[in-house]
Design goal:
Blueprint (H helix, E strand, L loop, with lengths): L1 E5 L10 E6 L14 H10 L9 E5 L8 E6 L8 H17 L4 E5 L2 H4 L4 H15 L9 H6 L5 E5 L5 H26 L7 H14 L4 E6 L1 H6 L3 H7 L7 E7 L7 E12 L8 H4 L7 H16 L4 E11 L11 E3 L5 E3 L7 H14 L4 E6 L3 H7 L4 E5 L2 H14 L3 E3 L17 E2 L8 H10 L7 E5 L5 E2 L9 E2 L4 H9 L2
Parallel strand pairs: 1-6, 2-4, 2-5, 5-6, 9-10, 9-13, 12-16, 13-17, 14-15
Antiparallel strand pairs: 3-4, 7-8, 8-10, 11-12, 14-17, 18-19
Helix pairs in contact: 2-4, 4-6, 6-11, 7-11, 9-12, 11-16, 14-16
The structure holds ligand BES and zinc ion (2 copies).
The site of one zinc ion has 4 residues, from loops.
Length: 496
């Protein structure tokens, strides 16, 4: 897909579809379409289109202007529109464009739009929405069905000449952000037979190669992980025939102002282990490495974005399998920081791998650690499938991520690290147990468990179990991996 900024009049460009976002009551303001004015008025009246949020109006232009069709999309009242809603509107319009097999499209960012957000943010939002809404994982489709898919090949973003530069900057950022998100989506959508811990390690190495040395990667295998005293991580892995890999990515620009660690849960398949999951809960568990995929997605973009911060990515990658060698309920593991853990349910494995990752992370004395993990079904019960839970021990860090998520439209909701619930994860035979006493607040006790390994280091935990994987098509994410968190983390890293 080729995205271009154009300052020409959109009615003079011969394209298949022109998308025109409009605010409520502002449909008839376009001098550019004067040749089509009557038709617009008539159609708007007949179809009761006033520009309310979600309304759409399609017109064949019959040669009166150059674009073959025009699609007006209602944005509702200007003062009520959020960036997220704007992205969803553009995403729906690009899906519509794809379904009518449009190959060349335009989006008109007229003057009415420019007072809404900065031109850069508008162009970035449009670019990301178009690329991400029309993404499809096609690797395993037969050639026949691949052929019937028509792709949008060219996109023109029309605006006035004075805004060309910020629009171009926004588009360039949008393309990088979207590509990084797609890196993550592809990894999640690949079956786990392919996306093994070794494969994730190879992916990290290929990112390092593409970065021409900007990103350095070290991969540790079983023997080294053992020497690193990551018994808790190895406990999860021990039932599997796949070798675990501890993957460390490092980006360190000269004069970096801060050191940030990104840790991603990397369970390449979660059967639950001996505490085996029922079939319907296991169906999508190739997605249990979504946190790791997002970390890799972020690193794939660093060479192009060159943020002025040191960034370290950590992934403990393994499978969670039942077998004669698998860890058993009641077993006790010792994490790298010396904390002992009674494993009462082998399906609460993410926190076991992260215990070692976080212990290792804080030893590097970073300014912040952010972990992303498809950690608990309980977080989905609490917040549904669209919203990630956020826990943190540092207000500034939490509010920076909240700010980044408002821009990218990836929904986060801050949750409490309730000290009083800590008693629920105390074990009678070890320091901690990996499941709680009682049924309620499971996402909070999982976060509290992780907090035991970070000490005073500023830390945020994102439980992305809900938004990491879409079970149905949504406007911005087709069914499958979402690459959730990639854009929010990139935005955070660029604004530190
Ligand atoms: N990977 C799952 C969490 C999950 C569930 C992610 C659904 C995405 C969708 C995690 O390892 C898990 O199984 N957690 C258990 C914890 C329980 C045993 C305390 C859960 O949430 O049921
Ligand atoms: Zn599990
Ligand atoms: Zn899991």
């Amino acid at each position: 897909m080729n995205i271009k900024i154009s300052s020409s009049n959109p009615s003079t460009q011969s394209i298949d579809l022109l998308i025109v976002p409009v605010f409520e009551g502002r449909v008839s303001q376009f001098k550019e379409f004067s040749a089509l004015d009557r038709d617009i008025q008539d159609a708007a009246k007949r179809e009761n289109f006033s520009g309310k949020n979600g309304q759409t109006l399609v017109l064949y232009t019959q040669g009166k202007i150059e674009p073959y069709k025009v699609l007006f999309i209602g944005l509702g009242k200007k003062e009520e529109l959020t960036q997220y809603q704007f992205r969803v509107s553009i995403a729906k319009a690009s899906r519509a464009a794809k379904s009518i097999k449009a190959v060349s499209i335009g989006v008109y960012l007229h003057n009415d739009m420019s007072s809404l957000f900065t031109s850069q943010i508008l162009a970035q939002a449009v670019t990301e929405s178009i690329i991400l809404s029309t993404y499809k994982f096609m690797t395993y489709k037969s050639d026949e069905s691949k052929k019937s898919e028509r792709e949008i090949e060219s996109v023109f973003i029309f605006s006035s000449a004075s805004k060309i530069q910020p629009l171009e900057e926004g588009t360039a950022l949008g393309e990088i952000f979207a590509k990084a998100t797609i890196e993550a989506r592809d990894l999640i959508n690949e079956p786990s037979s392919h996306t093994t811990p070794t494969f994730l390690a190879e992916k990290a190495l290929s990112i390092a190669k593409e970065s021409k040395g900007t990103v350095k990667v070290t991969v540790y295998g079983y023997q080294e992980i053992k020497k690193m005293k990551m018994e808790s991580f190895l406990g999860v892995s021990q039932g599997s025939d796949e070798e675990p890999k501890f993957i460390e990515l490092h980006y360190k620009p000269k004069g970096a102002s801060k050191k940030i660690i990104l840790a991603g849960k990397g369970i390449t398949f979660d059967t639950g282990g001996l505490s085996l999951k029922p079939a319907e809960h296991m169906e999508t568990m190739k997605m249990d490495m979504s946190g790791a995929a997002s970390v890799l997605g972020v690193f794939s973009a660093l060479y192009y974005l060159k943020p002025n911060v040191e960034i370290i990515g950590l992934i403990a990658a393994c499978e969670n399998m039942p077998s004669g060698k698998a860890i058993k309920p009641g077993d006790i593991l010792k994490a790298r920081n010396g904390t002992t853990i009674e494993v009462l349910n082998t399906d609460a494995e993410g926190r076991l791998t992260l215990a070692d990752v976080l212990s290792y992370a804080v030893e590097m004395k970073p300014d912040a650690v952010i972990d992303l993990a498809t950690l608990t079904g309980a977080c989905m019960v609490a917040l549904g499938q669209e919203i990630a839970g956020m826990w943190g021990n540092n207000k500034t860090l939490v509010s920076k991520l909240e700010e980044a998520s408002r821009v990218t439209g990836e929904k986060l909701w801050t949750m409490p690290l309730e000290e009083d619930y800590k008693d629920l994860i105390k074990s009678s035979v070890a320091d901690l147990k990996n499941i709680q006493t009682g049924r309620y607040g499971g996402a909070i006790t999982a976060a509290l468990f992780l907090s035991e390994f970070v000490g005073n280091t500023p830390w945020v935990h994102l439980d992305i179990a809900g938004p990491a994987f879409e079970e149905r098509d949504t406007p911005l994410v087709p069914r499958g991996g979402a690459g959730f968190g990639v854009r929010t983390l990139l935005s955070y890293l660029l604004h530190l």
